[in-house]
Amino acid sequence: MPYKNTVVLFICLIMGATWSFAQPKINSPYSRIGIGDLTNKNFGAINGMADISAAFHDPYHLNFQNPASLSFLQVTAFEVGLNARYGKLESGDAIQKGWSGNLAYLSLGFPMKNTESRILDRDKSPIFWGMGFDLRPYSLVGYDIDAIEVHPVIDTINYNYEGTGGTYQILWGNGVRYKNFAMGANLGFVFGTFNNDRSVDFTNLEEPYADFFQEDSNVRGFIWNVGAQYHHVFRKKGEEEERVRNLPQLTLGAYGHSSHNIDIRTSRLAQRFNGSYSASNLTAADTIFSGTYTDSTFAAKLPAEFGIGIMYQFVNRTSDGRNTQWRFGMDFTTAAWSSFTNEARPNERFENAYRIAVGAELLPDNSPVYVKNYANKIRYRIGGFYAKDPRVVLGNNKSLTNYGITLGLGLPIIRKGGDNSFLNFALELGTLEGDEGSLKDTYGKLTLGITFNDKNWFKKRKFN
After folding, report:
1. CA 7 → CA 14, 49, 454, distances in Å?
2. Domains defined along the chain, listed by start
3. What distances in angstroms separate CA 367 from CA 73, 249, 314, 321, 334, one per listed residue?
4. What's the pLDDT tens digit per position in 168-200?
5. Residue 92 CB: number of other CB atoms within 10 A?
6. How far apart are CA 303 and CA 338, in angstroms?
7. How far apart (Å, rounded) are the C-alpha atoms in residues 334 and 354?
8. Where are the beta strands (DSSP E) in 20-75?
9. Is 20 exposed, middle or buried (0-12, 13-18, 19+ CB in 10 A)?
10. Predicted confidence (pLDDT) per residue in 328-342, tens digit
11. How many CB atoms lie within 10 A of CB 8?
12. What whole-number distance in Å separates Cα of residue 58 and Cα of residue 293?
């Protein structure tokens, strides 16, 4: 893709993202807790391997979870992600099903010196530098719940809970590699607004007053994280460079950050009204309780996080002459959510969270040349995970668990004489639940990641 066309496409997609990020996205009752459901921070290629990102790096794909991986980029990579989710909520005999979806990410990364320019300049420096920018949701809030409580003395009471909005992050990442060791850092900003409303009314009382509570929260704060990777190729001394892709390789990776201080500005409105006395529900307020409004800024602290992982790659020579490439990896991540504080909601409880994931990728033919059998150039991915969610459900004081499997395909868009781009599909089948009797969320989430690769950025031209 020409340089100018890539820039135009990037600007158009950013403008489209502004509209798309503002649309309703999920139906998750658990997003009432904290700042909402935390979103996946990985890309389509990694999603298919259960998000094993600590030791993942690739010359054609981005990974901002561990910014050290940016130093391994060999081409400019522009990534766009879309997702669709089908969920089934179960509580006792009550079942609710529904679809949701959204733009998942919009990212750009590139090596600071073009790979071909290094070859033309005979640059044998052991230092490599990659940079990138990432825009995506950080957390999402979305639910609409009706609950009924039958009181034998007073009345049947109807409760309605409704929430919308979310927070978003923008990151600037850099990764620097010296020979086999890489380090990186992300600097970013998290921002956004979410709304939580609650109404209470009575079914059988004659012309009753109803209560309405509205809470709007605005989030602002700086975030950061650092990462490191060590990549080792098992080769004999003097092994030809072009054969490296066929040799066993091992990568160790780690990333993390300390707690982040953010501000949450919260405005609350409480009113009691009677729609029978006015054409406009909220204008006929109770003369005894006319309502209250408060607007305050509270300090909050997002938890520290740490992740570590390993990935092993090897090539198996098949009987028909193909070099079949395998990648296996494992990740462990933990976050200190028990220290999470939000002065706006002092009664909410959180516990430390963790996540264990394993994943694998198969590339039937890793040769760099064009092959007639397209199926041999598809990347096949699989993974599984088990995670403890930090949120504690009030009433039973039990935290949630999330577990499932992932499947993925990396379809190359092959250009003869050029760089391959990719369509990455990832399917996640999972369950989010607490103990027996709590709300159970069984879901399937499909992610489509589009990766545009271009080797012409920052390329030196020579004119005769």
Report:
1. 11, 30, 11
2. 3-206+218-258+304-454 (2.40.160)
3. 18, 16, 14, 11, 38
4. 999 999 999 999 999 999 999 999 999 999 988
5. 7
6. 8
7. 4
8. 37-38
9. middle
10. 999 999 999 998 877
11. 11
12. 52
